[in-house]
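pinning this so it doesn't scroll away 📌
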Amino acid sequence: MIALRLVPAILLSLLLVLPASAASRIKDVTSLQSARQNQLIGYGLVIGLQGSGDSAGRSPFTEQSVRAMLENLGIATEGERARVNNVAAVIVTADLPPFSSVGSRIDVSVSSMGDATSLRGGTLVMTPLSAADGQIYAVAQGSVIVSGFTAAGDAQTLTQGVTTAGRVPGGAIIEREIPMRFSDNEHLVFQLRNPDFSTAVSIADAINRHTGKQYGGMLAQADDSATVRVSRPKHVTLPRFVAEIERLTVETDTPARVVINERSGTIVMGHDVRVSKVAVSHGTLTIRVTEMPVISQPLPFSGGVTAVEPLTDIQAMTEGGQVAILNGPNLQTLVAGLNSIGVRPDGIISILQGIKSAGALQAELVLQ
């Protein structure tokens, strides 16, 4: 894939000399179905904030959580209101990696759910993390790292990044393992990250070439565009067999696709994008309106009044408008033809949309 974003034609030519496709390892283009992650979630409190926490009036659940935490610690609040401007209620999320063992640590993300203005300098107190089955699999605690910051004065406030979300690296300890008997599987299912029939067949062929030499049989077959099923050979452990398959290389294939982000002016084209022969003309109409009012001053002792007479100057200019013939047998020729028109990326976006409407763009057009 090649990205175009305010890039001169010379640089585009340098980018296009890259090879069309390169061999990729199977482990980089697929994932093992039985080795999946599991999402964890929990509700907790971040304490130690410098007055940037939740307000009692707008976040009553924070005050309730503080009282419940103090009661669990043996401190009786006796119905008094708790000041929570140094505390923030947060949602804690994490991904439990496959084959995780008890005692290992994982990173967690912390996001404010009240009206706190910043989590910088806060500490996440012990928060249980549960999965979709309601069981607790990890417990999180630690200092919250926030990349954004806020500086405020009497007349101005400067905010950079997000101050109401952060991370706790290694902040959760796994307390329960997900039951998984990986070594007992008779089949392995590899899922393609980018489903494609050609790539799935190439992966199956590469695995069969390896197993044919190593184990004397073809053990892989492509079930569809997203999965490749591999039978387990005898007299070899499953982790070793998976390691052998992951190191195999294949030539991946992708559909012809043009991705356009109109907000940022970014254009990404796949190498297989083709354009049938078509003539394109692109011109920009600019209308400039200038107001130049004229002050009319009466003669002395004439009894007149000063008046303002409007004067408007309107100019219309057309830039570009040249006609270019585009014929893209390959991506380099297509980009060179677009650059020859001399338009900006927003103009190229309009041209590509027009070529697609004319039926000359032999690729899928994706607008973001």
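📌 and the second one:
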Amino acid sequence: MSTHLRGDDFTLLPDLAVRSIGGSVIWANDEFFAEKENLINPGPAEYRPSTFGHKGQIYDGWETRRHRGRPGDDSAIVRLGVGGVVRGIVVDTAWFTGNFPPEVSVSALAIDGYPPAADIAARTDWVPLLERVKVGGDSRNPFAIDDENRWTHLKLTMHPDGGIARLRVHGEGRPDPALFGLGPLDLAALENGALVLDCSNRFYSSPNQLLYPGLARVMGDGWETARRRDDGNDWVRIRLAGPGAIRLAEIDTSCFLGNSPGAAALTGFTSDGTEVELLPRTELLPDTRHRFALTPAAASVEEVRLDIYPDGGLARLRLYGELGA
């Protein structure tokens, strides 16, 4: 099924590595100056001049010591929060000016289960995703990836050493085939393969966050649009994990108090483009997890449009059902 993302900017896709959806930096061979965990923190890296610790200037990123002729390169391994297809990578060297790596590379593995980090680091079957390439200092370095495989772990390598503020891994979630279909399924979950195809407005935050796992902790964890000054309404269109029958919808306005939508509606689309009303326009309350029982459509739907009236913010959208009905 084709996507409707506007333009070719892969950064509109969700970050599969970010800590907000369960990403983790599980191993690094060196993190002398700054911790590896900073690589996947949400939000841009921060910098406060002349803030020194016992090992020097404090950086919001991952920084290794100078090699001084020591052979080899420095690497960190990231376990993706959601396994999937990687469409693009951003190596962000923000605030690293005289200490950024001149070159980087990225490789990948698809791993079953939860082996120890040391065992993963010792593996020799890493698959190159991004060959050794130059990067600039204090800059976002984006690289498109042409690969259709599902990956669970990435290894970021600096040649030979230095500092990187953030690693962003943009792509599409793909479920673990061994776990798929074992119970009730959220057809709108990023981790099950759902994807935001398009939306009317992403002024304050990304609509991808609607599909994140877990509950929103703050207003910034959801999707919020600008205030409309016309007679229209805002919307988001989502490709489901697969064609299926939706039986329960959860529209969550948690953390949105004075800026939640006044109402919402859900429309499904079958494989031939036929529109199916799933939830008519229904009033919403602020800061509330609304749950609505739905009557499944006669035919499976594979995309859903969520309309909000007229604008505002939502924390999460859950669409529970079964595949292939």
